[in-house]
Amino acid sequence: MVQKSPDRNYTPGKLPLRERALRMAFLQRIHDIPGGEKLHRCIQCGTCSGSCPVSWAMDLMPRELIAHFRAGDIETILHSRTIWLCASCYACTERCPQGIRVTDIIYSLKRLAIDSDITLEHDGAHKLPQIFVDIINKYGRNHELGLMMRYYLRTNPLQLLRMASLGLAMMKRRRITFTPPRVEKALKDIRLIIAHAERLEVPKEIFSPEYRPDTVGYRAIDKVSSRSSKSPSTTE
Amino acid sequence: MKYAYYPGCSLESSSRMYDSSLREVFRCLDLELVELEDWNCCGATAYFSVKETVSLAVSARNLALAELSNLDIVAPCSSCFTILLKTHHMLEGNTELSDKINEALGAVGLSYKGTVRVRHPLEVLVNDVGLDKIRKTVKVPLDGFAIAPYYGCQIARGESSFDDSEDPVFMDKLFATLGARLVYFPHKVRCCGGMLMYTWEDIAVRLVTDLMRCAQENGAHLISTTCPMCHANLDLHLKQVRKLYPEAKPMSTYFFTQLLGLALGIPAEKLGFDLNYIPIDQRLKDVIQRTREVSHA
Predict the structure, then answer these.
(1) Which residue of B has its CA nearest to A202?
(2) Which of B38, B166, B194 is closest, CB to CB, to A184?
(3) How many CA atoms does the CB half-sphere of A27 hold within 13 Å?
(4) pLDDT at res. A123
């Protein structure tokens, strides 16, 4: 079941403060996706849910993610397993009759959940990408064995034992190695780019100071989308 | 023809046979690959789930390096291909974003103007080399083989436009040229679960089971793939698949470049057929033997 936030005092016409902050943060992220503003075209047809190969395991269908956004309930979305179950296969994006970039929107929800410190209570899925990022920042390339070991140690150490014989077979074939790969000369460059980009990560303020997204529904998107990018034709 | 080559992290380790077979096949067909010097991880799906700007900057560094060489960039891994293409399009479609990324790249004197073409080797082989030339180069036809062409979810979707997104045919055409028989495989673009194999194993195993069952029941001898993640998921988890589908046979999955290499008469040792976890099947051993005879003749 989707976890509910403990504090839900509704005043008609006003969103709870936390929800308002999440909504603004989400709209900012949508703003960065070329064509992201097409979210307001959603007709709730369910093609995304029907196309998703893992929707049967989700607590919220992809279609429901957008319904919850429209209803002013981002908090529920961020607590769902759904966003972490998305394996990024793009079936929904490919088939959406309205050209909505569902996969990219789910990516932005993952980022928002991490930035808001909302994590899954019983599952560790959200930890894997963070461990991956640590590895890339350190070596410049992925180290498959290191990623697996760190992930299982943090989430389910017993799994390491279960995987031991497979791991050995892979090592024998040199398909995984203990030594991490390394970029030779340019590691300093890569780290510099990362450090620089980290500072630019903070989304640009796209709202005027008096703007408050108390409006639920899709209208809030229109208010910020006009400054977004030129819509690329590739999404049509 | 000359291309900038971006192997990607998996091709250095778990899918190193994809790397070696691709290099062999390209050499055999007179295509030159120039590996990008000190390339870095594309960021994959994971970095993009954590930080957007940083992940785009990390990915764009590779594009910037390719741009300096003035060559198209060939990315065999589906995830790298998708991410590099996505980065290219996102920067093209959003000037605010591309300014930011160029500012980050500027820290080391790089920039990305947006002129690189991101290519998948499958598309390069079919479009740039052409099936006619490949047909003429075949030394050991793959006749007698029934292949399930598994494209994986990413290479035909997203920003990629070289093939049909619901029913891609490039690999089908390639294998038909090599003399193989393609089986009906409606799951050709269905997701293998990707990283879910680590985060929610039971869910990913169900997806892999669907794929293996579909291939087996349609009479495939083996599965051909274009993606390291798909390969790992299909090759390494037969034991778990059998819990859901006890009749599952040990069906081998190979990269399309390995099978192509074999047909072109490249010795099997150079193509890494012995690196799969699922043992090699007898029918393939026979073709490998024939390849040996051809290369000795």
Answers:
(1) B53
(2) B38
(3) 29
(4) 77
Domains of chain A: 17-123+215-230 (1.10.1060), 127-199 (no CATH)
pLDDT digits (tens, 9 = 90+) for A177-229: 999 997 888 999 999 999 999 999 876 667 766 666 666 777 767 666 544 44
- Tell me the CATH class for B2-119: mainly alpha
Q: 3-class SS at A232?
A: coil
Q: B118 pairs with which residues across the strands?
A: B73
The span from the CA of B253 to the CA of B276, in Å, is 8
Which helix (H) or strand (E) segment holds residue B150: the answer is: strand B146-150
What CATH fold (topology level) applies to the domain B136-296? Rossmann fold (3.40.50)
B19, B41, B190, B209: best to mutate for the A interface, most A CBs within 10 A:
B41
The strand pairing partners of B222, in sequence order, are B147, B252
- Ordered by start, the domain boundaries in chain B are 2-119, 136-296
Residue where the block lists tokens 């290099």:
B23
pLDDT, tens only, A72-98: 899 999 999 999 999 999 999 999 999
Which 51-90 residues of chain A touch chain B by CB within 8 A? 53-54, 57, 84-85, 87-90
Distance CA B274, CA B297 (A): 23
Q: Where are the alpha helices (DSSP H) in chain B?
A: 16-28, 44-48, 52-69, 78-93, 95-106, 121-123, 131-137, 170-177, 196-199, 201-217, 228-236, 238-244, 256-263, 282-296
